[in-house]
C-alpha cells in the first residue's frame, strides 16, 4: 500500500525516528527502508 506524499511531507523526522527505534541504522539503510515502505 503506497502512502500519499502529502501525508509524508512534514513527518519525515517521525518516520526516521521510528526506524531508529527498532535498531541502529545509517543514512543509506534508513533511506532504503523508507523507500520500500512508501
Summarize the topology.
Layout: H1 5-8, H2 12-22, H3 27-37
What does this structure look like?
This protein has 38 residues and is mainly alpha-helical. The protein has one domain (5-37). It is 68% helix and 0% strand. It is built from three helices and no strands. The protein has helices at residues 5-8, 12-22, 27-37. The termini are close together. The mean pLDDT is 79.
List keywords for this structure.
38 residues, globular
Structure at a glance:
This protein has one domain (5-37). Helix content is 68%, strand content 0%.
Low-pLDDT regions: none
> Which structural class fits the helix and strand makeup?
mainly alpha
Average pLDDT, all residues:
79
Extended strand count: 0
Largest sheet: none
Q: Provide the domain count.
A: 1
The N- and C-terminal alpha carbons lie at a distance of 8 Å
Amount of helix: 55-70%
Radius of gyration over alpha carbons? 10 Å
- Give the SSE string: HHH
